[in-house]
Amino acid sequence: MRLAAVSKPRPLHDGASECPSCGGTKFTVPATPSALEIWQCQNCGNEIAVHCHVALNLSAPAGRELFTGTVTIDSEKDALKLLLKLKHALSFAERFEPFKLEAQHREGRLIWDLGLFLDFEVERAEAACIRAGARATFRSGDQPRHEVLVDRQLPDGRWVVTNAGRLDVPVGAVFELAVVERSRKEPDGTFRIVESAEPVLLRSELASVDILHHPLPHIPGGYSGAITLIGADEERLRALVAQRLDGWSIKLSTR
Asked: What own/partner pairs with CB < 8 Å and gap ≥ 24 does 130-135 have?
């Protein structure tokens, strides 16, 4: 018996891979996928060690609910220390991907998407974040986070905003955070956040949407429009817009 380490996507056991001993293309593979598997050639019985690229199934198992975790960073100087703590504290979670957290830190973000957590993991994740000194929230997976960029306020009190995302932002969505940041365009055409101010807590509800004089039940993804907000914290947003410097943007987020 000879073991040969090869790297293959799974499953490739019917004509898409060859046995290094006899050239056979049919293999018996383990019933449970894993990163390293032993495949047996059905022709000569030779076994090979195979590094498999197994796609993660991010859907919730039957009877379970998925939650999305979000962390708000109070200060950029604390971000690296918090990153190291969270990578360790949340390593127990099945769907936690630390490399995505690292990418958000490199981009200079002060709001981090922690990814998906199963319902029975949330309590432990909340406790882990508290111990790490992080302000985290966990929302049911059927409540996606929405964000809009604020341009200006019109004389009639409505706000001109842009939904730069792909998801529609429905009327009734409640914005709970205002993020002020400065971005730089990279050579590849992407934008990198180079500086962020401390997030401002607020609570304003999206009451109406008007695009090209047509009322809509949502802000479509990729569109700009005039919106009405309801909430006492609207005055806080007005102050942020008045104090905004050139090159800085204001983003409203539902967290």
From this structure: 131/89, 132/82, 132/85, 132/86, 132/89, 133/78, 133/82, 133/85, 134/71, 134/73, 134/82, 134/85, 134/86, 135/71, 135/72, 135/74
- Cα angle 242, 246, 250 (rounded to 5 degrees) comes to 60
Q: Please provide the DSSP assignment of 87-104 as one string.
A: HHHTTTSTT--HHHHHHH
pLDDT one-digit tens code per residue, 59-90 = 556 667 888 888 877 677 788 899 999 999 99
Distance from chain centroid for Cα 94: 16
Say which residue the tokens 């905003």 belong to. Answer: 161
The pLDDT tens digits of the residues spanning 181-236 come to 877 777 776 667 777 777 777 778 888 999 888 889 899 888 899 999 987 677 88
One-letter amino acid identity for 197? A
Q: Provide the 3-class DSSP secondary structure of residue 79.
A: helix
Q: pTM of the prediction? A: 0.47
Instruction: Find the radius of gyration of the CA atoms of the chain.
Output: 24
